[in-house]
Specification:
about 75% helix
């Protein structure tokens, strides 16, 4: 890997490990729908002019149906569920649970009849990963919101389904345009809900900084860097960041928010990571930012 590739890789490992921390801070004062609206609106405002300048929006018109499904699976539904879950879960636990996305992707691909040649290794990986998720949650689920866990589970499903739709139904389209269009669509959908739940008082500086960070750094800038990383090192090597982001999220939660990391969470993350590697054949599934 070149020096430029290494720098881009390190940047993405950090940038897409930050959102869990920022979301946890923002939902203290903002409703989840308001946060998602602000994030997608700012992100769309930054990325849409670039996509339009590159002529990547017009080709999307003929593929609006799969584009809507992709937007729902990858952005609109997961982002609001993630924000809702983090009103009851720590950012550390949420980030570590999202590490199971490649595992969920392997399950989906298995159910669709692909990767049959990797049967034994795949199933071992799935079982190891499931054990890791169980360790992450812990035996005593009474202290953890079951509803929040279900929400994170649905987020993982959405993040796994999105890239599959992108590859199978939107693969011939410019990815930058797809991202911009998905942000525009999500902004339109959440605008009325955000208006109804808009805070009466101006949020604190930390919350405003979190919203701006999510939109500018973790959304707009992140996609620009991610596409540059793919061009530099290739799509397969680029998606290895999905194994590093959860660890970054956990570390930030402990250092910045003083969240507690249990031995079960460490063991669970290790098992989920091992299960993902086994189930996906040694490479991460292409998973855009959670």
């Amino acid at each position: 890997m070149s020096r430029r590739g290494a720098l881009l890789f390190a940047a993405m490992c950090l940038i897409w490990g930050i959102p869990y921390l920022l979301i946890r801070v923002a939902v203290r004062e903002l409703a989840p729908v308001t946060l998602v609206f602000a994030r997608t609106a700012i992100g769309a405002a930054l990325l849409t002019p670039i996509a339009a300048w590159r002529g990547e929006l017009r080709p999307l018109l003929r593929h609006w149906k799969p584009l809507l499904v992709y937007t729902a699976a990858e952005v609109a539904i997961p982002w609001v569920l993630l924000a809702r879950a983090e009103t009851r879960l720590t950012s550390s636990l949420t980030g570590l649970l999202i590490a199971a996305v490649p595992l969920v992707g392997a399950v989906i691909v298995t159910l669709t009849g692909e990767r049959e040649r990797q049967g034994g290794r795949r199933w071992v990986g799935l079982l190891v990963g499931i054990g890791g998720v169980a360790a992450l949650v812990g035996l005593d689920v009474g202290q953890i919101s079951v509803v929040a866990l279900v929400e994170v589970g649905l987020v993982a499903v959405g993040y796994a389904v999105g890239p599959i739709i992108l590859a199978r139904r939107l693969g011939e389209l410019p990815v930058f345009g797809v991202v911009a269009a998905s942000l525009i669509g999500s902004t339109i959908v959440y605008a009325p809900f955000a208006a109804a739940s808009w805070p009466r008082q101006t949020p604190s500086a930390h919350v405003l900084e979190s919203v701006v960070g999510l939109a500018v750094v973790c959304t707009a800038l992140a996609f620009v860097i991610f596409f540059a990383l793919i061009a530099e090192v290739g799509p397969v090597r680029a998606t290895v960041i999905t194994y590093v982001n959860p660890a970054v999220a956990a570390i930030l939660g402990v250092v910045v928010l003083s969240e507690h990391i249990s031995a079960g969470m460490v063991l669970g993350f290790a098992l989920v990571l091992a299960g993902c590697v086994l189930a996906t054949g040694g490479g991460a599934e292409p998973v855009p930012e959670p």
